[in-house]
Design goal:
Blueprint (H helix, E strand, L loop, with lengths): L2 E3 L10 E4 L5 E4 L2 E2 L5 H12 L3 E4 H9 L7 H20 L7 E4 L2 E4 L7 H17 L3 H12 L14 H27 L3 H14 L4 H13 L3 H19 L5 H16 L1
Antiparallel strand pairs: 1-5, 2-3, 3-4, 5-7, 6-7
Helix pairs in contact: 1-3, 4-5, 4-6, 5-6, 7-8, 8-9, 8-10, 9-10
């Protein structure tokens, strides 16, 4: 995606919020500014995720129509920007000249960092990671839980992504999973093994090939005195990996299984 960074960010309408961690949503006070037309939503999503950078028109066209755009693609893209301007001008009640910027070779959305939920998520995740590295698991768990509460579903759940947004959505999901892992690690350091079991069972169901989640479920069950269920969880993972990928569990998980067996045999 070709982008050019804007050098200043002065337009900051109060209470105008952009949310991408779930369905795309834009609100101003109690009013929704979320476009209803699917392709207009896609254009807005692209501009939000590259906020304060110029997104060139060719990138917008590629996102909307892929390798086979219509002859009217440039004009149609301009029309979508026009619809966005009208929507925000009507809902926000202020001039949007400094919100939607036209600057060759494309367009930009100028907002401040605290207007976008993704920025809050990244800030809190970074804070949680730092606190965890400082051996402050309780504070880390609090920050990471706050970050994860910003999510209300899959990123851009009401947008049909093209190639550009598809890659971004996949990256955001990876970031969400990483934040979950950090928060679980903090909880494990706090000895909350039993309380995590139900959540970890749900996570291994949602991400059946994620060995990290399986490993923490095996560990939580074992440390909760549920050795038999812990070994069953390992066997379930082994069968899934063999069936889906033709692979065995990682050496780390094989060692974990051995440790669980050793604890049982020495008890």
């Amino acid at each position: 995606m070709a982008v050019k960074e804007l050098t200043r960010t002065t337009f900051q309408p109060q209470d105008l919020k952009f949310r991408v961690l779930g369905p795309l949503e834009v609100t101003h006070l109690d009013s929704s500014c979320t476009p209803t037309a699917p392709k207009v939503r896609s254009v807005l999503a692209l501009l939000i995720l590259r906020a304060n950078h110029v997104v060139d028109t060719n990138s917008i066209i590629e996102e909307l129509w892929g390798e086979k755009p219509p002859r009217s693609a440039i004009t149609t893209a301009q029309t979508y920007i026009y619809h966005l301007r009208r929507l925000f001008d009507r809902q926000v009640g202020e001039s949007v000249d400094e919100l939607f910027i036209t600057r060759p070779p494309g367009y930009a959305l100028r907002i401040s960092p605290d207007q976008l939920d993704l920025n809050d998520f990244e800030r809190l995740t970074k804070k949680g990671r730092q606190l965890l590295s400082e051996n402050r698991p309780a504070d880390a768990a609090q920050a990471l839980s706050e970050a994860l509460r910003l999510w209300s579903g899959p990123a851009l759940a009401n947008v049909s992504p093209g190639r550009l947004l598809e890659g971004t959505v996949a990256h955001l999901e990876e970031e969400r999973v990483h934040a979950i892992q950090l928060r679980i690690e903090a909880d494990l350091q706090l000895g909350r093994h039993r309380a995590l079991i139900a959540e970890l069972r749900s996570l291994v169901s949602r991400y059946p090939l994620n060995e990290w989640f399986h490993g923490k479920l095996i560990l939580a069950l074992s440390r909760s005195g549920r050795r038999g269920e812990s070994l069953q969880a390992y066997q379930a993972l082994r069968q899934t990996l063999d069936r889906e990928l033709g692979l065995a569990p990682s050496p780390e998980l094989q060692k974990l299984q051995h440790d669980v067996l050793s604890v049982g045999s020495s008890a």
